[in-house]
């Protein structure tokens, strides 16, 4: 069966290589100091979507991202890997959103997209590490949710079978569509960008980007409509401005401090490949390494 | 993680050579594809930007997937069971990544599913892949066979096979046999035409076939019964889907272990004739080999690059006698020379690639329309240069790769002898580059006529007349002196008119010419980009000393001395 899949993706600062100036004095992330990347677990989610597309002809994969204008790059990155299209939620009123305001905005955009069978997203983003947005989007849309997914085994007859990676093992669950599934970093890596797709979509731009002075190849847009990337504002998704951005965010950062890890716990492992493998998986999952 | 394209700025330098404008214009037929293919460039800048972006993908895959897999692939290698090859798990993962990224058949026309890449960016991708894993470069680089299939196959065959290569099927070129290595005219694999079925069948054995269990094979076979020489050989396409070829064993090699080298048994394997009968070796394999030699050059450059980096990293990190060993003259000299040889090799690689690009593009255009007289002259000029530079480049850069890998181990000391460091793999991998696709000795045989007919000299003189910055003038002067010495040597040796004597000194003459060529290429690089200054200085010092050594040897050598060397 063909599916309509929405992938929620976030552009994040690359916190894997953090320098001294990573945080601003007010406790927010200094995005200018860190390169902006596709949130790693959202890439895992995109891969799951693309695999479903490979297995189910006619399936469409649509990206949805919220962020500043430059987050349009996330949509292009998705197109380079095989997604069919995407929407950028961008508006000054969305700025400063915590997970509640973010999931509200995303859920309003999903309502605007209207037709979908499956919403996939990464378990969490490497900047906030809350793992709240996926579940909150599901709640706001009144949908079922499956978290910590490692593999989507199959989708048939309106039901999805998913393998979840839990602390003490793997659980396979089944649920009816439509549904929100959050994907773990232990799921397969996303495929590379494709040479043909990168050439096809590299000139794709949002309306705002087209207005930039450095914008070129604008003459292509009339004959290649797929180059137009859609931008949505608060009004476009019929959102209540009070529930968006800073005003819709109950979270306030009181204080930040440097935490120095100290070894307090110890753990004994047997010198077997399985134990080492488990340890590696654990360390990768909790971001100690990788 | 590392991106092998972005972490090596010299690649962009070579990609943006002024000659690229002409190359891309020819290759893209003035951007005619833009209305038919959504991924075709609309102008020169657009095309260059695409090469850049795609090489970035290649660099990422090399740094994140292929290089980390290289050690495992080297240990596990490919295996064979029931006549079929299974790649090492790392190789399978590599192949999956390059397929998904659409990096197969990239030099093919778009109408067959390719990216229509010129040779320069294609060979740059090979340079990157080889740095990550030289053995994998073989499997990936065999997509080159599609070029031969395109050039000599008919339209039906192109349409049938090339899209499959672009979709990720692998290829092999089945040339050598137990009794036909360098001497390919002794090939015995039998091709028999079945009148009733109207097709060919192959029977016999092939040996040392890289990726011998490929999906598509180009096979050199004897189609003319009773013949014994090159004129009885034709080229065939064998499609694995038809069956009939089994892998009897795979060789246990010293290096490039991830690339299976197979012994193949053909039992009534159905095949199609590619091109005309009797031209298999004379024309097609020669063309195939020239392309393949450029690929091996890229492999050599990639290995040299890896060796430089391994050596440098270790020399910075390893402390002895209270300091990092890089601070000792004996070590830093080695590193500087390794870098200079690597940079020189790379400059030679792209210079050759540009020559091949222009003449091949024009040759391809000549299939569509008549070339203008200017274009014909241009094609002849660059064709000749490609012919001259390919054997010189393949011969010398592969020797440099070996020297660099050797020095990388030397810098590591005892640790380099252990399996724990990558340099020992590089050393083993490098060792085949100056053997396959024609040994260095055979490259010299191909190159020597360009010494005697003056192709090299006139090109060197061409380089001499270019404009260089005043501060580089003294380096140019050194090169002028080297060239004069080379010219004298050539006269001195050729005027004996003694072929054996010329053959005896041939390698020295080709090397002397190559030091002038490599030196000038680096000088041109340094002229545009200061980062090459150091390598230019170091290489020209080295080349000058080498040329002096060669001169001295020949001066002291009497024709009668040959007797002492004879077996």
Q: What share of the residues of chain A lie within helices?
A: 25-40%
The helix content of chain B, as a percent range, equals 55-70%
SS-based class of chain A? alpha/beta
**What is the strand tally of chain A?**
12
Question: Helix count of chain B, per DSSP?
Answer: 18
Count of discrete alpha- or pi-helical segments spanning 4 or more residues of chain A: 7
Mean pLDDT metric of chain B: 96
Oligomer: heterodimer
Most extensive interface between two protein chains, with residue counts: A-B, 15 and 20 residues
Describe the protein's topology.
The complex is a heterodimer of chains A (290) and B (567).
Chain A: E1 4-9, E2 11-13, E3 36-38, H1 40-55, E4 60-66, H2 72-81, E5 85-89, H3 99-113, E6 118-122, H4 133-141, E7 144-156, E8 159-166, E9 169-176, E10 179-183, H5 195-201, E11 205-206, H6 207-211, E12 228-232, H7 273-285
Parallel strand pairs in A: 1-4, 1-6, 4-5, 5-12, 6-10, 7-10, 11-12
Antiparallel strand pairs in A: 2-3, 7-8, 8-9
Helix pairs in contact in A: 2-5, 3-4
Chain B: H1 10-15, H2 20-27, H3 44-76, E1 79-81, E2 84-86, H4 89-100, H5 119-132, H6 134-141, H7 145-152, H8 155-166, E3 171-174, E4 190-194, E5 199-210, E6 216-222, E7 233-239, E8 245-250, E9 261-274, H9 280-317, E10 319-320, E11 323-324, H10 329-365, H11 373-412, H12 422-433, H13 440-452, H14 455-464, H15 473-494, H16 499-528, H17 533-555, H18 562-565
Parallel strand pairs in B: 3-6
Antiparallel strand pairs in B: 1-2, 4-5, 5-9, 6-7, 7-9, 8-9, 10-11
Helix pairs in contact in B: 2-10, 3-4, 3-5, 5-6, 5-9, 5-10, 6-9, 7-9, 9-10, 9-11, 9-12, 10-11, 10-16, 10-17, 11-12, 11-13, 13-16, 14-15, 14-16, 15-16, 15-17, 16-17
Question: How does this structure look, described?
Answer:
The complex is a heterodimer of chains A (290) and B (567). In chain A, α2 packs antiparallel against α5 and α3 crosses α4 (133-141). Chain A has 7 helices and 12 strands. Chain A has one domain (4-253): 3-Layer(aba) Sandwich (Rossmann fold), CATH 3.40.50.620. The radius of gyration of chain A is 20 Å and the shape is globular. The mean pLDDT of chain A is 90. Chain A has a 10-stranded mixed sheet, sandwiched between helices. By secondary structure, chain A is α/β, with parallel strands linked by helices. Chain B is of the alpha+beta class. Among the domains of chain B are: 171-277, Butyryl-CoA Dehydrogenase, subunit A, domain 2 (Beta Barrel); 440-565, Acyl-CoA dehydrogenase, C-terminal domain (Four Helix Bundle (Hemerythrin (Met), subunit A)), CATH 1.20.120.470. Chain B has 18 helices and 11 strands. Chain B has helices spanning 10-15, 20-27, 44-76, 89-100, 119-132, 134-141, 145-152, 155-166, 280-317, 329-365, 373-412, 422-433, 440-452, 455-464, 473-494, 499-528, 533-555, 562-565; strands at 79-81, 84-86, 171-174, 190-194, 199-210, 216-222, 233-239, 245-250, 261-274, 319-320, 323-324. In chain B, the strands form 3 sheets. In chain B, strands 3, 4, 5, 6, 7, 8 and 9 form a 7-stranded mixed sheet that branches. Chain B has a two-stranded antiparallel ribbon with strand order 1-2. Chain B has a two-stranded antiparallel sheet with strand order 10-11. In chain B, β4 (190-194) and β5 (199-210) form a beta hairpin. In chain B, α11 (373-412) runs antiparallel to α12. The mean pLDDT of chain B is 96. The chains are: A alpha/beta (290), B alpha+beta (567). Chain A binds chain B through residues 191-200, 202, 217, 220, 224, 226, and chain B through 38-42, 46, 49-50, 53-54, 57, 60-61, 97, 100-103, 106, 115.
